[in-house]
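Can you please make up a protein's amino acid sequence together with its fold in token form to help me picture the idea?
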Amino acid sequence: MWYCLAFLLLLPYSSQSFPDNFSDINKICVAVDDVLSWAKAHHYLLIVDFMFSIRVAQGELEMLSKDPLAASWSQDVVTHIKLLRNKVDRLAELALSDIQGDDEDEYYKQFERLIEKKYYISSYFAAERRLTSVPRFPAPSGNEPTFSEQQSDGCMREVLGNSDTPVCTISRECFLQMTNRESEDYQLTHQLLYIILAQVRGCSRELDKVAQSHGTSVSSLEDTFTAKILQRLSSVLESGRYDLFTEMVMIGQMLNYKEFYRPKVTELIILWQDTTGCYNDESYAPPDVKNQTNFIGRKLFADEIVDDQCSEHMTALALIVLTLTLRHKLHSLPLPLGTWSISNLALVALFVVGLFGFLVWCKKRRLRILRHILV
């Protein structure tokens, strides 16, 4: 009998409508829209690294526009996502045409394969992850081993492949450099991007093989490096290194660690956006940081300053963070009645179990009441 009682108690819960609050999601959509508008107005100035962020945004917005869960979203959000997808696709055509038309751009020739197609980051790292334990890493000493921009770019090109190197080449030298556990700041985020890039480019098998030969695993490296980033995040923010902060958040979100989707992070990213739609990593920095022309370390992406205020690097990072956050928030919404989900299936299973229990109970009581009704 208790099966039936449990089911009856859950009926009011299963039939109620969940709250439909899309205010934060609408703010993110507007922020993405503003970035794309700024980028379109300056498409002839965009560099290869910004094009990478466009490719990531393309992939995320395409997946959202086809998402089966969209039936449970507000119509305004669904419409806005479709408009954003069209907008980023047009931007990609413009920006890529301009970059390809620059015959003197040697960087593009080296990284042509990096921006040749869209990236579906959320499909590669679909399972939400959590850092079950965050070890205490020693404070940076300032004497950590570093690597040059040329070395880093060389390792990225190995994975991408070129006329001289097969795709998915992972040399011992590059693997050791890009998995050095003593790295900090921009070196650390660049190491994780190397690991991410290898996987989204279809080189997971090669990366796993090399990692195992060195007595580790890809997941272990991701957990360790991301845990260090998470531990450093607060101090980086407090020091006014907003560019590095955004870069760290982007990496954590790409790997789909829940800790990097905190509401406060989203609030900051939206707050830092300029009225023009771009980002400037000096406009909100404290006085002791504001006058620095370069932060210490190697940034993931190259940078260009547009209109004496807009940082392509910071804006590219923010575009990726905003689109990844948009997907995460939409997929975190409770589903209304009528949208099949794990919770819906659980209720159906509970009903079946309750019905079975009821029948067993009735059988034991020889179905006296039921027989009377049927007669």
Observations:
- Residues 75-100 form the longest helix (26 residues).
- Residues 1-20, 283-301, 337-341 have pLDDT under 50 and may be disordered.
- The longest strand covers residues 305-306.
